[in-house]
Amino acid sequence: xxxxxxxxxxxxxxxxxxxxxxxxxxxxxxxxxxxxxxxxxxxxxxxxxxxxxxxxxxxxxxxxxxxxxxxxxxxxxxxxxxxxxxxxxxxxxxxxxxxxxxxxxxxxxxxxxxxxxxxxxxxxxxxxxxxxxxxxxxxxxxxxxxxxxxxxxxxxxxxxxxxxxxxxxxxxxxxxxxxxxxxxxxxx
Length: 188
Prior knowledge:
The protein is α+β, with helices and mostly antiparallel strands. Helices cover 36% and strands 12% of the residues. It contains eight helices and six strands, in the order βαββααβαββαααα.
């Protein structure tokens, strides 16, 4: 008697996206105060022992970084405008973004107000490749949240040091952090 072979279903590789919204607190502040766009901005409590929660790219060009003591940030970028944080507003916008993510996949693991993991394995058939899903994040959040969209569109690849696959209409955060978006083949 010959044993019947059962056909094993083909395993679909798991696709996880790590969404880390860069300069999130600054970008949320710019939603409410768009006239500040293009200026050197630091989000922090204006006190002697405060640390930088977020800095605009203009302030980052002067060397200002998150978690840096505010006193040091002011030395590096004396022209920067210090904005008081609005935690309730950050939570509100975060909830809107996470609600949108839950329309893409039912597996959303929120790590903080500006960071989450999404399991896109089941969404690929419906929405396309991870790069296409990421572009959808840009398009969707770009209509409602301005440049916060760029921050909410990064999909994870197999290696955290690899740029996201496929072309993008805006530079990827991986390239922006390296300062190499003009030479990135994934972003052109």
